[in-house]
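Let us practice reading a record.
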Amino acid sequence: MTRRPATTGYTLVELLAVIAILGVTMGLVMPALQQSRAAARRAACQSNLRQWVFAVQYYAAAHKGRLPRRGQGPVPGPALNRPEDWFNALPPYFDDEPYVELVNRRRQPQPGTNCVWICPEAEQLDRPGERVFFNYAMNMALSVWFSPQPDHIDRVGPLQTMVFMTDSLGPYCSVFPSAKDYRPIERHGLTANVAFLDGHVAALAAEQLADARDDSAHPAVRWFPPNSQWPGPPQ
């Protein structure tokens, strides 16, 4: 009488058990992996903002303490040809071209570009014909064209609390807490990355960015320099 060889394969029950275990494992691993990737993108964005702050510090040192202009206020697609505006004045300090030259050559950075202009979390807006995309924008209350002279870095109060630049929506070169589109954008979960003039970058929630002239609600976040005569953007 011949014997059948022993079966070495898996039974259906065993295969289903393995698949179930793999499913549970992936369910545990994937959220952690996604969180890790999100943290890496947030860190890359913060690194970009630090480069902009270092550039403005070098600019101020080279211009007797004066900051660059903030560009136009609550206007999408602003004028690009003024050399004093931050997006033209600062790029040479990290060996990049002024934004107006990038636009003229049709090389302006877009979402997905790995460069200092673009946050890794940025998404393109559906705005046909839009030629600018400012992923980061300067504090609208600093160095306003309303004033005859740009602000002086030594006269804006504590640098560690003065907002210089934040995540922004895209077509605006300056940013200000508001219900309007030129407000800071919370790209990173419920927070926006904010760069201060001393060089540090923080992830802040919307309520921490609220406009407060007296700075009593959030004294660590200031938008207006002392004695500013700018009334703020139209409501």
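A brief commentary: The two ends are 96 Å apart (CA to CA).
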